[in-house]
Fold this protein.
Amino acid sequence: MAFVEHKNTVSQSSPTTAKRSDTANKRKNRTLAKQQQISESINGISSEILGKAQESVSAVEELKSAMEQIASASEESAGAAEQSLSVVTQLNNSIQKTMRELNESVSTAQTTKVSVEETGDKVIETAKRMEFASQTVSDVQVKSADMKKASDNIGQAVGLIAKISDQTNLLALNAAIEAAKAKEQGKGFAVVASETRELAAVSTTYADVIREVVATIQESIEEVEHNIKDVATFITDSSNLGSSIAANVQSTMTELQTAIDVTVEGVGKFKELASKAQDFNKGSESIASAAEESASAVTQITSSIEMQVNALQEAEEAASGLSELAEDLKNSTDASKDAEEISTAAEELISVVEEIQKSMQQTVTALEQIESAAQITVDEATQNQTFAEDSLKLQDILIADTQEVLDHLNNSAQFLESVDKELLVAFDFTKDSVEEGKITSKQMRLVDKEAKKINKTLVKIVNTNAQTTMLAVSGSVEAARAGESGKGFAVVSGDIRSLAQDAGNNMDKVQDVMDNLDEEIINIDTIWNTTMNNQDSELITLTVLKDDAIKAIKNVNNIISAFDGLMIANEKNKGSIEEALTASTQIQAAAHQSLQNTEESKHAASLINDTVSEMGDFIEDLAVSADELQQG
Amino acid sequence: MEYLLLVVKDKYFAIDVESIIEILRPKDITEIPEVADYVLGVMNIRGHIGTVVSLRKMMHYKEMGEELQEFIASIKIGHSDWVKELEESVNQDKDFTKTLDPHACPLGVWIDEVMTCLKCDDTFMEKIKREINPHHKHLHEKGRTVIDTALTDKDKAIGIIRTEIHEHYDVVIKNIEALDEDIDLWTNSIQRIVAFTTKKGETVNILVDDVIDIISIKDEQKQKLSQIDEGEIVQFDCAIELEDGKIATIINDINI
């Protein structure tokens, strides 16, 4: 402002100075000529200064626009860095969460695998026992054929008993005929004969009882044999399933193990991904701080620019003032005073130039800051781009891995489903075997009970036979007493005695057959009961195994749904990485633009510097002119 | 007076014990040529050769063996008809009228009789038990399967007839025909020989279906028969009503 007032003063005083020079005409002619010469020189200088100032202003304008661009690039870069920082932080969180979940899944899978392994061991044991049971029942089948043979033999034994009672009947009839024929002398015979017939009738009754019982036994044994065959089939079928179940359990374990292996490997890859995300974030932070630095530098430059614009305006005004001074000087009488004014103006101009130069130095420093920030941003963003690209590749691998794990898990679930189904069938077979086996046990006990009935009846027959023998002896005695008329009776009595003897021998044989059957039944019954008890406890084992299988299926399904969730997270992570990648490229482009802007700014700054320093030279010339004027 | 009560076919006869020597089992009867049809042959009895005559033949009945042969022939036809009707009932959606119970058909009834007979020969009984009874049972039981199957699957039912039913039928028929060779085993085990002294003092061994008992008959119980054929070999003029209401003809003599 002082400069402007001064200029006004100069312009007002100009006509007064001209009047004064008119009055001191001649004496000062030489002086005037010189004054005019200097005035012209000053005029030229001031117009040069004005030109330089205008040049500088346009360069400053350029600088200003570059600053605006840099500011917007910094802002963009900062925004992108901020955004990708948040995205990648989210990504990192997601990865951390995923890793926790993966570890959980791996531990669940391992627990499941261990329990499936235990199930497998149990299945193998069960399969072995089933195999053993199958072997046992096929042995029992052979034995039941023996039992059938023994029961056929008692059929023949019954025939023997029947024959004896029939023969006894026949002989008793003959004895009765003899007694009838002997009339009075045969009275003793008649008693013997009638008692013998009674005994024969009794033994016929016994034979009938035995025949009936034997029919029951044979029927039961036929059923037993048939049932044993059925049970054997059930047990063999379930035993055959045993090996298939064991194989499926083995396959389940293999699939689970592969899933675990791939998952564990995956955890390593996720760690790598997490470290890449951290690196990326470090880069983003650097980019953000570079953007801040760049922004502060821009602010500094912007305020310098304002100052420079003001200073240049002052310079322009001073230059116009000088122009007027130079006009006044042409006819001035007080050159000394003019010289002083010019000198003052020059001093002021020098101070303006100095100010601009100082500000320019600061601008250049700030520009260097901006340049270095842009360079850092380019470097970091390039590196982040690499990180993002690597992460993307890693993420794709992880997606493929997750799919692979899912495939293996689904396979193991399928194998477990088969195990579950087969266990159910085996359970049904075993249950059927137990149910039919128990019926068979009952039948065998029935057979045993019936066989005991036969034994009791046999004892009775043996007793009857002993009585018959005694009677026949009495008959022989009676016949001997009767003499001639007892001859026929003696023959019959002899026949009865020898028959009774035969019967005794035959009874022993029948007893042997019965003992044999009893032995066969006990033999089978013992094995059978043990086998059925085993089968019964097998039912419990199979139920436990089935529960195990269902639990394992549930666990595997849980793991599968965890991995399904993981798959979604993976896809989301991929999106985040792609976003980060885009941000990195954007930041790079912005930083490159900033670098170019900085270059231009530097160029503008140097132009301003040169122009201002040229302006300084002119001002020096001005000072020289002022000195000349003072001396002149 | 004491009489021996015996039976042929479904007729009872009584013979005075005074004229009876003893009761025997028929065994190894040797046929002899050019004799009357009622003379079965000769048999060794306690070292002596005795002639064996058939009461059935003397009474103009068929022999037990012949009856069995006729029975076998009727069984064959019956079961062949059974199979035919079964197939027709499936093909033409008709009701099956014959029995599905193996114990209800004539063969089944006979098998059950033989199997519960204490006297029957072991070999003969075993053959029926093993070679005929199981297949006969299966034959009828499969009939039930066929009828049940036909409700849902006719072709399958026909298939069962063509395979399993025919198989069992063939075995039953084949084995029942084979019984022909063993008829003597059966009749010999069932029938008895009564050694009899004729009025002329000859010994005649009479083959009867069975001897039942010795019974006392008083003269006043005897009932004169109105029609008596003097020319018959078996001489009888009286009968007696037994306790169960059956009539027994009293044989006086055998006139060979």
The interface with chain B takes residues 155-156, 159, 162-163, 165-166, 170, 173-174, 176-177, 180-181, 204, 207-208, 211, 215, 488, 492 of chain A (CB under 8 Å). Residues 2-19+47-137+145-631 of chain A form a domain with the Helix Hairpins fold (CATH 1.10.287.950).
